[in-house]
Amino acid sequence: MWFNAIRALSVLACLAPGLWLAFEWSAGELGIDPLARLLRFSGLSAISLLLVTLSVTPLRRLSVAVARAFEARFGRRLSDWNKLIRLRRQFGLFAFFYASLHIGLYLSLDIGFSAGEFVHDVMERPFISLGLLTYLLLVPLAASSTRASMRMLGRRWQLLHMLVYPAAIAAVLHDWVHTKLGQPLPLWTAAVLTLLLGARLVSWRLGDRAQAGEIAPRPPQPVRTSTTAAPPTSRCSPPSAASASAPRTAAPRRSWRPWSRPG
Amino acid sequence: MPAVRPSEITPEALWQSRRAVLGAGLGLIAGLGRPMPARAAIAESPNSLEQIGRHNNYYEFSTAKDVVWKLAEEFQPRPWTVTVEGAVERPRTWDFDDLLKSFAQEDRIYRLRCVEGWAMVVPWRGWSLGALIAQARPTSQARYVEFVSVHRPSEMIGQRQGVLEWPYREGLRIDEAIHPLTMLVTGAYGQSLPAQNGAPLRLAVPWKYGFKSIKAITRIRLVERAPASSWSLAVPSEYGFYANVNPEVAHPRWSQRREVRLGDTAKRPTLPFNGYADEVAHLYAGMDLSQHF
After folding, report:
1. Which pTM was predicted?
2. Which residues from chain B sit within 8 angstroms of residue A128, using beta carbons?
3. Least CB-CB distance to B55: which of A33, A108, A125?
């Protein structure tokens, strides 16, 4: 119940920039250079959400480590932020939404859907090609965000979603290359990204695995066989007197979700 | 200061004709109050005073365009002097009010195109720079004009950081400086210039990117070699001496083919020389503009 409230709040937080921008546009409050505001705001929302997505796992690991250390020291268990993982897909998809808005604004208001201008920009201007690269890297991530895809791709899903790293780097470079001397924002996004990627690198070197030990695995239930009568031939058959005495236990639950696989 | 490259030396024909152009400048003084040549007048309606006054690239105050107007409230544009010096027969330090009295002010509507890709239409008030230069009687050594802005970190808080080298400097070739379109500006919309737009005196060179139109001028110096300009010193690969508006020559990092007029949401194509090609293209005949950007 707690978590549902958090989830609802986070959805509102993700929607807020878009709603705000729509409000400003409809009220004519976009300022003196409306196009610059639209592009900058949508781009900033996209890159911020991308960085939020990348911060989920480092935060989870950090919180688990802190909780464990606390438990070891004080004997009491703190809750951790493991459940953040359930929000990651939503953050990622909203990042993609704002990226789509950003590129859509560029295509419509900047180049007026002109194929010639688009080709010109992409071939000549590095920041445009970096932006396009970022978007193209995000498309397969968004497309494969459904559970069906996770099931279909299995292990390869993990590999595919490592594309988020070059996508984030390309996004930061896109902003950096575009920005004129004197504006500090790209330095901040670059710093945050470096911090997040650095955390991942450190974890990888230390051998942390996303699955292992972060959610305490459900211990496999012992399967006790009946020593007296033959097992029932069908589940629907009325239990015989003999098997009625044998305790019925559930088989250990094997979840297909990669992050709760016991390891 | 870099040595003048052979390609930068004013072509002989242009140099010979300089006396003719100077003569035209003197003619301007003689015909004070004569209206601008009709071809330079543009049909577009100007941006509002609020748009002009609240959207400023004026790093002396702030790198954020929307707060410059507030910070510029600290600036005291009076008393003000402008020194005309260098390769001239009659150097002089003008008091600003004497300038207003000596040169008739006229209203002209110009386009201004920033290198970043936004543009506006401004009804400036002022007079042609050529008249001031002609009065100082430039000698034959005068091939370029250097402009220096003010250095006043007590009132301009952006100057306390070294984003650019202060004071701001710019330069023009002599034929560009005495061209009738090049304007010394003292006001906008019939009022005196707001501090955030470069009070009390700024340049308006409408066929070049906005950073050439230096604000808060204190010195006008006629020199023999091409002067360094602040943006060229900061990022020489991106900001050149000529800075003519040219959709065909891209900035290294972004395209110059399109611009957004302040207030519009959609972009429009950029015009060569910002739409003043008829008046100024001849100044650059024979020059490779992708090299001399």
Report:
1. 0.74
2. 254-255
3. A33
Query: CB-based contacts of A238: which residues, under 8 Å, 6+ apart?
Result: none
**CA-based nearest residue in chain B for residue A178:** B253
Q: What was the ipTM of the complex prediction?
A: 0.72
Q: How far is B62 from chain A (nearest CA, A)?
A: 9
Residue of B nearest to A28 (CA): B263
* Beta carbons of B230 and B165 less than 8 angstroms apart: yes
Task: Suggest the residue from A24, A29, A32 to mutate for an interface test with chain B (most B CBs closer than 10 A).
Answer: A32
Per-domain residue ranges of chain B: 6-284
Measured in residues, chain A has a length of: 263
Fold (topology level) of B6-284 = Sulfite Oxidase; Chain A, domain 2 (3.90.420)
Helix, coil or strand: residue B191: strand
- Measured CA distances, A258 to A55, A140, A165, B203, B207 (Å): 19, 19, 20, 66, 62
- pLDDT tens digits for range A214-262: 444 445 556 555 555 555 555 554 545 444 444 444 444 444 444 544 4
d(C-alpha A31, C-alpha A28), whole Å: 8
In terms of DSSP H, where are the helices of B76-234? Answer: 96-102, 129-136, 174-177, 230-234
